[in-house]
Design goal:
alpha/beta
Length: 196
């Protein structure tokens, strides 16, 4: 964590929205929406934080935020609709699940969830505190889900790589073939499943 990072605080009427899990070869995509009650020191893009720091901040966000929610899109939805559309659907679900309605919604990236009036900010998770908070909640939730699913599908190492295309994962995929958690529309998974 860079202690000099100061993100823009957007206030109690604005929700930040982000997702985690667009790039992996396996598992759901998870999104979160957060309305912060006040600034939380140390928030940053989740990719720049250690796993331990993300866990600490996620607990603090859940305790101190004015409102928060987490939602996901399944592997089946990713395969049916494509990863972008599934990610946007997860974001829309997270927004809808907020226990209070924000006046303004800021979404990380350049794509809007369908049917919603939002503002998109490329790199927003490194600029706006509510988006960073949402990214942290989404990442922690997805990592936890993949760690739990590792017990259901042993041998792939999901608890270590969270479904990303690491060498360890690709070797297991080649050896074992795809499991129900794998996104068969992704090229490495498709190749591993040929002839099985």
């Amino acid at each position: 964590m860079n202690p000099m990072v100061l993100l823009q605080h957007v206030g109690r009427d604005t929700a930040g929205v982000d997702e985690a899990g667009r790039g992996p070869l396996a598992g759901p995509v998870i999104a979160a929406a957060v309305i912060l009650a006040g600034p939380i020191p140390g928030l940053d893009d989740s990719k720049r934080l250690s796993a331990q720091r993300r866990l600490h901040l996620a607990r603090q966000i859940r305790q101190e935020a004015a409102a928060w929610s987490i939602a996901w899109a399944s592997v089946w939805e990713i395969e049916r609709d494509n990863i972008l559309q599934a990610s946007l659907q997860a974001m829309a679900r997270a927004i809808a699940a907020l226990p209070r309605r924000p006046l303004r919604i800021l979404v990380d990236g350049n794509q809007s969830p369908p049917g919603l009036l939002v503002e998109t900010i490329v790199g927003g998770d490194g600029q706006v505190d509510a988006i960073a908070a949402a990214g942290i909640l989404a990442k922690v939730a997805r990592d936890g889900e993949m760690q739990d699913l590792d017990a259901c599908y042993p041998g792939y190492g999901f608890a270590r790589h969270m479904g990303y295309g690491t060498d360890l994962h690709l070797q297991a995929l080649h050896r074992l073939g795809p499991c129900p958690l794998h996104r068969r529309g992704f090229a490495p998974v498709d190749r591993a499943g040929e002839g099985r």
